[in-house]
Structure formats: C-alpha cells, structure tokens
C-alpha cells in the first residue's frame, strides 16, 4: 500500500526530505484524506490516530473515494469512529491532558468529491473537503501543514493545483 504525504510550509524550504525539527514544542498540523469503507484499514487507522490526538493539531478529516471505492464517500463512518472515541475521551484525558472533544473532531469532518480520478477534478468540482484544505493552507500559522493521503488523492490534486503558486510545497511518497 502506498501513501502520499504533502507538506505546505509558509516559508521557503530547501530540504528534500522531511524536516527533522520544526517548532518541537508545538503540535504538528495535520489533514487526513481517507477512503474509509474501501477496506477496514482506515477505520483502524482512525482509532489509532485518535489515541494520539492530544499530540497532533488535527485540522481536517476528509472522506474521499479511491480505486477501490469510486462512487461514494463515507464521512458517516469517520463520525462513527469519532462517536466511539467520544466515549473514551474523558478517560484518555485522565492519563494525559489535551485530547480534543468528540465535538471538536466532528467539526473537522468533510466530504470530498463522490467521483474517482480526473472525473472528480476541474472547474466547479470543489467540495467541502477541498475548501477545508485551502483554508488550512491559507491559515496564518508558521507551522507546516501535513496532508496525509490514505485515499482520494484527487481532492488533494485539486487543491494542489489551486494553491501551488502561493508558496513552497514539498511532497514525500512512502511505501
């Protein structure tokens, strides 16, 4: 399985690999693009992600399509994982403070285009998910924005094309 991570940084970066230290005292900003329901791995990944949600500044959770699920997005499934997290969040905060409320996480959920590939890209195809990405990129925040693509790269492609001229962008592809 391949994953793509993109980072938008408001200042010029010359490195060709992820920076080793960026404001180590602050949380890293993160947007997740997920083809949740294509198979069980993204549901499991959200469970794991939320166990570390107090250490990350989550800025978006976008339901997308993928090669395995071309005609539907399932933001409702992200919300179901958040509902389960909400039941244990008070206990998590007993052990270590800073876990976001389920309400805060629900406010981050958006849908991408319910179409696959280039059919989902182009004029008039913006979605709540693609607009969230633009808002996160344009936010006045000196920290890099990490975008983790678990599925649905077309949502990211649309925003990359629109925002690339605005500042440096670095991408890493992991296997």
From TrEMBL:
Where does the record place the Cellulose-binding Sde182 nucleoside hydrolase-like domain?
29-154
Question: Which one Pfam family would you cite for this protein?
Answer: Sde182_NH-like
The protein's name is Cellulose-binding Sde182 nucleoside hydrolase-like domain-containing protein
**Organism encoding this protein:** Sphingomonas bisphenolicum
Taxonomic classification:
Bacteria, Pseudomonadati, Pseudomonadota, Alphaproteobacteria, Sphingomonadales
């Amino acid at each position: 399985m391949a994953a793509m991570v993109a980072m938008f940084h408001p200042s010029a970066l010359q490195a060709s690999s992820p920076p080793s230290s960026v404001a180590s005292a602050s949380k890293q900003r993160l947007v997740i693009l997920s083809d949740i329901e294509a198979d069980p791995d993204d549901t499991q990944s959200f469970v794991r992600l939320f166990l570390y949600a107090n250490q990350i500044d989550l800025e978006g959770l976008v339901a997308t399509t993928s090669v395995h699920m071309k005609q539907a997005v399932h933001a409702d499934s992200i919300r179901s994982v958040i509902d389960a997290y909400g039941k244990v969040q008070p206990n998590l905060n007993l052990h270590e403070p800073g876990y976001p409320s389920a309400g805060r996480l629900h406010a981050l959920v958006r849908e991408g285009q319910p179409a696959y590939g280039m059919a989902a890209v182009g004029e008039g195809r913006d979605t709540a998910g693609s607009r969230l990405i633009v808002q996160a990129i344009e936010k006045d925040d000196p920290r890099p924005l990490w975008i983790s693509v678990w599925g649905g790269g077309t949502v990211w492609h649309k925003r990359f094309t629109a925002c690339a001229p605005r500042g440096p962008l670095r991408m890493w592809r992991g296997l």
